[in-house]
Design a protein that fits this description.
Helices cover 30% and strands 32% of the residues. Helix 1 crosses helix 7.
C-alpha cells in the first residue's frame, strides 16, 4: 500500500522540500517534472499548485496534501485538517490576504468600496468579506501581477502578503486584513478512516511538526563546576528541565564538574552564552536541531 501525497508547486516548493528533509524525508524533482522522488517506498508524490490541492484531496485523487487555510476556504473543500504547519516562503509566520488601495486613494475603509471594482485571485474569499460588511462591489479574477492593476484597471485589490514589502513597492497601502492563513496538512476523509493510511499520515504530521518546532530552537551543552550549577541552571530557559550528568574524573569522589544540556530558543542564546562564560561555564557548544518532538 502507498500513500499519495500532494506537494505544493511554486513559491512553497523549496521550503516544503527543506522541511521534509529535516523531518527525515529526502525529496528531489527535475526542473520539468511534477513527480518527485521520495526516499520512502510507502509514499508517492505529485507537485500541484496549492490553489488546487484541497479539491483533489477532497475528491480522493490525493490522500494527503499541503495547502493554505485560505485555499481550503476559497474552494470550500471538505477535508480533514490534520495539522497546522506555520511556515511560508520567507519564514515561520502566517500570511495574510489584505485589501489594498493606491496610497492616494480616497478609500479608507471597506464601506468605501460600494460600486467599486476589485481584482483578486481569491474571488470567493473576497465576496464573502464584502457580503459580511454589506458592501456591493464588482470582484474580478486576477491571473497575476495584481499589484499593478490599481488604480488604472481597478479601484482596489485583495492580495496575499507576508511582509507587505511588495505592496509598498507598488505604492499601495493596506486598508484591512480579510484572512490570516497558515499551511495545513490535509487528508481525504476516506484515507483518514483507513487504519494504515491514517497511521502513516499521523507519523508524517508528527515529524513535520517536530521539524518546524526545531527551526527556532538550538541545543546547548556546557561543563560547569558543581558549586556553580544552581545559578547557571537559573540562567538557562530550557524547553524542559536541563539534563545534568556527572563528568568522569579518575579518583574524584563527589562534587567536581557536571555536563549540562538543554534545548532553548535560538533568539536568546547569543545573550546567554557570554553570561554563562562569565559565570564559569566551559566547553560551551551550540548545535542545530532537526526535530523537537513534544
Amino acid at each position: 500500500m502507498k500513500l499519495n501525497i500532494g506537494l505544493p508547486k511554486g513559491s512553497l516548493q523549496e521550503s516544503t522540500f527543506a522541511m521534509f528533509k529535516k523531518a527525515g524525508f529526502n525529496m528531489s524533482v527535475g526542473s520539468r517534472s511534477y513527480i518527485p522522488y521520495i526516499d520512502d517506498e510507502e509514499m508517492e508524490g505529485i507537485l500541484i499548485r496549492a490553489q488546487e490541492m484541497a479539491r483533489y484531496v477532497e475528491d480522493g485523487i490525493i490522500d494527503v496534501g499541503l495547502t493554505g487555510k485560505d485555499w481550503i476556504e476559497e474552494t470550500g473543500a471538505e477535508v480533514v485538517e490534520v495539522a497546522d504547519l506555520i511556515y511560508a516562503k520567507q519564514g515561520l509566520r502566517p500570511v495574510r490576504w489584505v485589501l489594498a488601495v493606491p496610497n492616494d486613494s480616497k478609500i479608507k475603509k471597506v464601506t468605501d468600496l460600494n460600486g467599486k471594482r476589485i481584482a483578486t485571485e481569491a474571488v470567493n474569499l473576497t465576496k464573502k468579506y464584502l457580503k459580511k460588511h454589506k458592501v456591493k462591489a464588482e470582484v474580478e479574477f486576477s491571473w497575476g501581477a495584481t499589484e499593478i492593476k490599481a488604480p488604472r484597471l481597478v479601484d482596489a485589490i485583495v492580495e496575499l502578503t507576508e511582509t507587505g514589502s511588495s505592496l509598498r513597492a507598488n505604492n499601495l497601502r493596506i486598508v484591512d486584513t480579510l484572512l490570516e492563513s497558515t499551511t495545513k496538512l490535509i487528508a481525504n476523509k476516506k484515507a483518514w478512516n483507513d487504519k494504515w493510511k491514517r497511521k502513516k499520515i499521523e507519523t508524517i504530521s508528527m515529524l513535520l511538526q517536530g521539524a518546524l518546532a526545531a527551526e527556532a530552537k538550538v541545543g546547548l551543552k556546557l561543563n560547569v563546576d558543581h558549586k556553580d550549577l544552581d545559578k547557571i541552571i537559573k540562567l538557562i530557559p530550557a524547553l524542559r528541565k536541563p539534563t545534568v550528568s556527572n563528568l568522569y574524573t579518575p579518583g574524584e569522589k563527589g562534587g567536581g564538574w557536571v555536563a549540562v544540556e538543554a534545548v532553548i530558543d535560538e533568539k536568546v542564546v547569543r545573550n546567554i552564552i557570554p553570561k554563562l562564560k562569565e559565570m564559569g561555564a566551559e566547553g560551551i557548544i551550540e548545535y542545530p536541531l532537526n526535530k523537537v518532538i513534544y
